[in-house]
Design goal:
This protein has one domain (about 1-220). About 85% of the residues lie in helices and about 0% in strands. It contains eight helices and no strands. The radius of gyration is 18 Å and the shape is globular.
Length: about 220
């Protein structure tokens, strides 16, 4: 049982590292080409391209699911790169490599920790709590220091959170490993893109939805 979970954890670790690498590639290209808001459009195109890979993976599971993960990860990278491109922030290779290395290390620790523990509930709660604490810490550091490291760490922790949820789902049903990984990257792209839009719009994007919701309630009262 433990050996099976170790194998699943290792595969998920490899997929997570590959996903982070693809995201780094998307970020690097978006900032280098200075795509600005077109980065969001490029990311959306990548996500759309991932859909047929995911849907068509029933017959060729592994290969097409990996392509889906790849496309969505590059799309997430384009969305993240949009933030730095629009804000005209210089993102160094050292920042990318540092966050990528930390992402790989945290992923390895999390999957190994969840794989060797016999009981599932306790390690899932512990690892999830640590991940939430890291996200909060990245937000605090981003607001307080306004460093590219903390903002980049925040986006990559969002990516990691969906990998983590997908892995926890896989512990319950190991046969859906690659499918869950693919699903997780769709969710990561959507959340990361929304986070980028909210940050760049300085909250105005959220106000649009609140205004729509408020007008809807007003109409119902009338």
């Amino acid at each position: 049982m433990v050996r099976s979970r170790m194998r699943t954890g290792f595969i998920f670790f490899v997929l997570s590292v590959w996903s982070a690498f693809c995201a780094c590639a998307g970020i690097f290209y978006c900032t280098l080409a200075n795509l600005r808001w077109y980065g969001i459009a490029a990311g959306a195109i990548c996500m759309v391209l991932a859909i047929p890979f995911h849907v068509g993976a029933k017959r060729h599971r592994t290969a097409l699911y990996v392509l889906s993960v790849t496309a969505n990860s590059v799309g997430s990278g384009f969305s993240i790169g949009t933030y730095y491109s629009v804000k005209e922030k210089q993102l160094s290779i050292e920042n990318l490599l540092t966050v990528f290395a930390l992402f790989a290390l945290l992923s390895l620790c999390a999957y190994f920790f969840l794989s060797v523990w016999k009981r599932k509930t306790i390690p899932v709660i512990i690892a999830g709590s640590v991940l939430v604490a890291l996200v909060v810490g990245a937000i605090v550091g981003w607001i307080g220091v306004r460093s590219n490291f903390y903002s980049l760490a925040f986006f990559f922790l969002l990516l990691m959170s969906f990998h983590y949820v997908a892995y926890v789902m896989t512990l319950a049903e190991p046969r859906d490993l690659f499918r869950n990984a693919s699903f997780g990257n769709f969710g990561a792209f959507v959340l990361i893109t929304l986070a980028v839009i909210v940050v760049l719009s300085e909250g105005d994007f959220l106000e649009i939805f609140s205004d729509v919701g408020g007008s809807g309630k007003t109409k119902k009262k009338k």
